[in-house]
Every structure is written in C-alpha cells, then in structure tokens.
TrEMBL record:
Protein's UniProt keywords contain Kinase: yes
Gene (UniProt): thrB
Pathway noted in the entry: Amino-acid biosynthesis; L-threonine biosynthesis; L-threonine from L-aspartate: step 4/5
Protein's recorded name: Homoserine kinase
Top EC class for this record: transferase
Record's keyword annotation contains Kinase: yes
Source domain of life: Bacteria
An example molecular function term from Gene Ontology annotations: ATP binding
Aminoglycoside phosphotransferase domain span: 27-257
InterPro entries noted in UniProt: Aminoglycoside_PTrfase, Homoserine_kinase_II, Kinase-like_dom_sf, Pseudomonas-type_ThrB
Pfam families linked: APH
Keyword terms of this UniProt record: Amino-acid biosynthesis, ATP-binding, Kinase, Nucleotide-binding, Threonine biosynthesis, Transferase
Family to which the UniProt record says this protein belongs: Belongs to the pseudomonas-type ThrB family.
Reactions listed under catalytic activity: L-homoserine + ATP = O-phospho-L-homoserine + ADP + H(+)
C-alpha cells in the first residue's frame, strides 16, 4: 500500500474548489508505490492522479519535479502534467501535506521485460535527455557519491544482518568509486529512477514515464547505467546483453554517446548498483515490523554489482567504440 495520508471526502471536495476540473465522483487510493500517497481522482471532467508528498520528498524540491514534468510535456515527452489551480499554481497543500494533481497516464508497466521494452526505453530516455537541456531549474543529485556515503554511514554496519561481509564489500566499493567517479562527462537532467514500474506501455508502444521524484542534474550516461541495472538482468541475475544492446543502440540513434561516456559505462554501472544496494539495504534494516510496504531485496543489487566488477571491456555491455 502507499496511502499514508487518508483524505476525508469533505477535504477533497473543498480542495477541488481551487481547480477547474469539475466535481469529485470518486477518490481511490493506489496500492503501488512506496514513497508518496497516490490516489486516482475521478471528477466530472475525467481521471487525474492526486499525490500527497510524504516525508522523504523535500518540499523545496517540488517546483523542480513539477516544473520538469511540465517542461518535458511541453517538449513532446509523454508524462503526467501538473494541473494548475485557478490561481495558476500546481503545488498546493492538502491534509497538512504538500499536494498536486497531475493528468492520468494510460498504460501498464511491464511485469516481464522483453527486448522491445528496452529498445523503446533507450529512445525515450535519449529524447528526455535532449528535452531537458533547456530546463532552467537545478537540483543536484542527493544520491550521488557523497549521498551514498551518508546512506552507508546510516546503515551502521547493519549489512551484516543481511549478509556476512557485506559492510566490508560496501566500504571497499565506495572507496573505489569515490576515487574513480568521472567528473567531466556531459551532464543534464535525469529521471534517476527509471525502473520498470515507472515506464508505461500500451501493447509494444511506450506510452509514458511517471514518478519524477528523484529527478536531478547528473551525468547523462549515469541514467543509462541505472537502466542497464534495472532492465537488463534476468531473474537468475544473468546479464542480458541483447537487451543492453537494444537499449544503448536506440539511445544512440537519438543522442550519440561520446567516447568518454562509453568508456565510463562500467564505472557508472557500478555506481548505480551501489546506489540501489545502499538505499535498499537502509530500507531493509530499518523496516518496521508489520509494515504494509515490503522492502526491496538489497542482495539483487549486490549480484548486479558483482557483474559490473567483473566486466573486462565495454563489449560486455554489447557496445563498441
Ligand atoms: N500519472 C499517472 N497516471 C496513471 N497512473 C499513475 C500516475 N502516477 C502514478 N500512477 C499509479 O500510481 C502508482 C504509484 O506511483 P509512483 O510510482 O509515482 O509512486 P511512489 O510512491 O512515488 O513510488 P515509488 O517511488 O516507489 O515508485 C503507479 O505504479 C501507477 O499505478
Ligand atoms: N526503484 C527503487 C525504489 C524506489 O525508488 C528500487 O528498486 O530500489
């Protein structure tokens, strides 16, 4: 479940008087997602998504997230569009939490990733990177190298509860990445959490991207590295080079990678593995007993990290210079 804040009927009715989107017909909590409270809002004018932003989202970051979604939509990328109230503002407050209404996006996220999904994702990712180039707001990635250290420290060695020796592996990998992390690769706005549950398809066509609440300025190729991790491994942890090749080729048809970006992919992929390994580990060891939200498996990302550590050349990702 991801409805942390319940919205009483009279509050939503009152809230909608701030908008021109008709009267409420129903408000249904959405079970998926872990960060925020999401509702499907059905009004006399159609369907919308109502989101109440919970603790992990900084209120000061919301103009960046909502502005980025609007910017992408203005530039032809299919994603939820923030709905402005009668006062022209899309960021509001409901039940004591920051809140926004966005348009409803048709489509389903793929339960089983097929090669064609990876191809479609590569193309859309590159289009988003180009579209983001003239977005004026800035948000540094709070979960880049410095942020990883904060999460690592916050885990207080509790990795041992999950796997003996994990703390040592994490410390060593962090030290390696801190020294080797590239500093001069092309940067831009990235989504930073483009996992399969955030990418909708209708049949074989990508219908849109959702959940922009980790979006930030960072190395563009780091997004590819995140997606190699999230989309190109099979259930048995084997790397699917066909999926990677399709994703990287489709990306490059829209935004060709520079030589430095290609050469950096193994390091970027290690960083991406460590980032999700750490946040998953933190959630795992701090998971309240009996909570509805099931934490995601950190060890899946340890296995992915091991693959990237073993990579000998970029041809292991199905790409050549
Ligand atoms: N604009 C939208 N149109 C249609 N459905 C949406 C939209 N936004 C969210 N949803 C639905 O709500 C679910 C949760 O949304 P979202 O992924 O943004 O939540 P979250 O709490 O930020 O979760 P997480 O960060 O864990 O993915 C999605 O899986 C989808 O079913
Ligand atoms: N996509 C993240 C969780 C939510 O942002 C993960 O799989 O760890």
């Amino acid at each position: 479940m991801a409805v942390y804040t319940e919205v009483p009927d009279d509050e939503v009715e009152n809230f909608l008087t701030e908008y021109d989107i008709g009267d409420v017909l129903s408000l249904k909590g959405i079970a998926e997602g872990v960060e925020n409270s999401n509702y499907i809002l059905h009004t006399t004018m159609g369907h919308y998504i109502l989101t109440l932003y919970e603790k992990r989202v900084e209120k000061a970051d919301l103009p960046f997230f909502l502005g980025y979604m609007q910017h992408l939509a203005n530039n032809g990328i299919s994603c939820p569009v923030p709905v402005a109230g009668k006062d022209g503002q899309s960021l509001k407050e409901l039940c004591g939490r920051p809140a926004a209404i966005t348009t409803f996006l048709d489509g389903m996220w793929p339960r089983r990733i097929q090669p064609f999904h990876c191809r479609a994702l590569g193309k859309t990712m590159a289009e988003m990177h180009l579209a983001g180039q003239d977005f004026s707001l800035q948000r540094p990635n709070a979960l880049s190298v410095k942020g990883w250290k904060e999460v690592l420290d916050a885990c207080e060695g509790k990795g041992e509860q999950v796997k003996t020796g994990l703390t040592d592996i994490l410390n060593k990998e962090y030290e390696f990445l801190e020294t080797e992390w590239p500093t001069s690769l092309p940067q831009g706005v990235i989504h930073a959490d483009m996992f399969q549950d955030n990418v909708f398809f209708i049949h074989e066509k990508l219908s849109g991207i959702i959940d922009f609440y980790f979006a930030c300025n960072d190395i563009l190729a780091y997004e590819l590295a995140i997606c190699l991790n999230a989309w190109c491994f099979e259930q048995d942890n084997s790397f699917n080079i066909t999926k990677a090749q399709l994703m990287l080729r489709a990306y490059q048809e829209v935004r060709p990678l520079e030589e430095d970006e290609i050469n950096a992919l193994p390091i970027l992929a290690r960083g991406a593995s460590l980032r999700f390994l750490l946040t998953r580990l933190y959630d795992w060891v701090n998971h309240p007993e009996g909570a509805f939200v099931k934490p995601k498996d950190p060890i899946e990302y340890l296995n992915k990290l091991k693959f990237h550590q073993s990579v000998k050349s970029i041809s292991d990702y199905g790409i050549t210079l």
